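>> received
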Amino acid sequence: MNFTGIINKIVYPRQRELEKHYTMPLALQQESLHRLLRYAKDTEYGIRHLFQATKTYEDFVQNVPLNTYEQLKGDIDLMRHGATDILWPGRVIWYAKSSGTTNDKSKFIPVSKQGLNKIHYAGGFDTVAIYLRENPKSRMFAGKSLILGGSHSPNYGENDSLVGDLSAILIENINPFLNLFRVPKKKTALLSDFELKRDRIAHETMGKSITNLSGVPSWMLSVLSRILEISGKKYIDELWPDLEVFFHGGVAFTPYRKQYDQIIQNPNMHYMETYNASEGFFGLQDDLKDHSMLLMLDYDIFYEFIPMEEFGKENPTVVPLWGVETGKNYAMVISTTCGLWRYIIGDTVSFTSTNPYKFIITGRTKHFINAFGEELIVDNAERGLEYACQSTGAEVLEYTAAPVFMDDHAKCRHQWLIEFSKEPEDINLFAQLLDQKLKEVNSDYEAKRYKDITLQHLEVVKAKHDLFNQWLKAKGKLGGQHKIPRLSNDRKIIDELLEMNK
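>> returned
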């Protein structure tokens, strides 16, 4: 039975409401800030930072400091041990496990019940609402959704409080009605062994009508490839002829697009990017012809931004949404109903429009190379690789890059370790084209490359098959929401990988 018509009627009021993102965006943000302060005024953090007396954005900046995870960790640990009314009213029992900090292997991001509903599930609802608005002939709810999830485990041994991947938290708490449209089975979705999970998903979905996919591109590609292996089919369309959309996020889609095009032949297949992190749901594509995303302004999130040229300073300039400019690189700061207050999330964005507010993710505050003043960010890397692949016919599966500070000949350069799904005929030409494009999109990189005086031509090292997955598996990070760090300002990660590549 096709339920798409019924779902269209359910999401229609929200489709109309979303128009406020285009007509009154700043009012939505002001409302979000006042709502957050009102909810949390009697928490320990709210009392310490004068939420009751905070009436304006200027008061908020005056009373509440910028925070990293380390600065909130003490309060979060109290919450994990059962303390109530600390960063958010009541007791928070869910914690999204995210990649670690300098001092810890993992971060544990609080996910309150209100945050779950008013941020994460709200984002999922809006994803469907916008997709159906853009695709009125969709039959998405005539079949099932293949949704990849991670796993969870007891928090400090308490069974009623759990930590895990955000995707596992979402699946664990999903409305039972939605399970009618979702595969695999919950038990399979929450398996921690990714290789076992991948095989079970393949068998559980083989005879189903799958119309849409949701997950991280790299892990979904691994699952789809395994499904093709087991089924003996060449194309996913042969198994799921009604597949029409992949809702993706977590990593840039560009390196994987050609591989999806090879295994999904449907010319009407859609790809829709979402920005759903452990800390919140922040954006989604509202126009599938435009790769930038609409910033979601009426969830329980208040946004601020630090210009990257000031990031790391003792007292950096911080601007609210109404202070941003297009084309500038910003570190994103959020305050949410999960108890994150003026929290520096670690992602960097650049606005492509302020009417409406649309943006692209440019990288991570810690994932860049600036060993020689070149300020290379992930967005530069993705554009460089896309150009080199288009020019040579190559396809990149995974990669990471880091500086070589000085080799045996006193030369400095960038070293790229790349796993190709389709190797270029001439690796030196590929490296030349990548270098050329990086100079084109990054003037600092171009200046440092001038006549090879500061920075020599980059080096590309071919990774053996499955190297990055082997590295993740050795770290206990295979599957879930774990990602390969694309750029590093030191050699720790790339040296570990190079040692395994011998």
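>> The CA atoms of residues 401 and 416 lie 4 Å apart.
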